[in-house]
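Hi, here's the filled form for the chain we discussed.

Project: internal
Contact: R.S.
Residues: 324
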Amino acid sequence: MPPPRLLPYEPGEIAEVPVPEPGPGQVLVRNTHMGVAAVMRTLMDENTDLPMPSFEIGAPLNGPAIGEVIAAPGTELTPGDLVEHRLGWREYALLDPSQAHRLEPGLMPDPAAFLSQGPTALMGIERGAEVRSGDTVFVTGAAGGVGSLAGQIARQFGAARVIGSTGSRQKADWLIGELGYDAVVIRGAGPFEDQLREAAPGGVDAVFDNVGGEQLTAAIAAANRGARIAIVGALASQLATDPTNVSKTEIDTLSLLSRSITLRGIALYDHLDLIPQWNRRFAEGLRTGTLSFPHARLRGIERAPQALRELIEGRHLGAVVVEL
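And the returned structure, exactly as it came back:
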């Protein structure tokens, strides 16, 4: 068995160590795919408000991964099982059985699809923004791993008009041409509120906010009476080169009150029951063509730091997956 390679230090540095030997009650997994996400940038800060520990200097990073069980003495798992866990950023992972969740073999046409951020997207559309038939829906950060699925899900829930936001004309054209968005507002192409009001002349009924800042401010301004706004992410601060200099979101609480607008922060760790629901929904959608999995795939663990840098720089469309 070859030695695993880890990424514990500066981006791009590979550490080779012996493959761990699983003892009784332990699981050894050969990782096949890992996902990178914007939250990893935030976890590089020493102190965060996230309900998860920050990365440690001198230790491997971690994140979502799927892989094949190599050995699992004294556990209910067997060699060959496909499992999902949180010890990515390495080729082999030694886990407690509680950390490895068995996946249904053959469920997904592409195993990498288990690493989609669809559970978060479904949560925000269904339980956060409570999208209903006939709604005009605004999805911020629409070209990322979460937003690229949120727009598709909104349409499945009956949205009549889906509007997204992104950072370039190229991405806007992709959202309209490939994912079926009706209109896209572009960061830096003019006052955000003006663009949104032009894209949604009848106002916005539901908002899936993955960004915060001026985009959330504009969404509130354009929201109709009774609108539901789900706060799912905070990319404006997560991806900022200087997080201390990020403008705060200004909210007119009287305006929210007078228009009966619901503003709800919602996080996946409170809605973990959606993960198996999403996996079944996504598998069916991929097979029938009613859902797609926009993503970039880089091959080799040595490209993992590059994958994270390029995601933070906004170079990719959809999710970013590293095939190990």
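Let me know if anything looks off before we file it.
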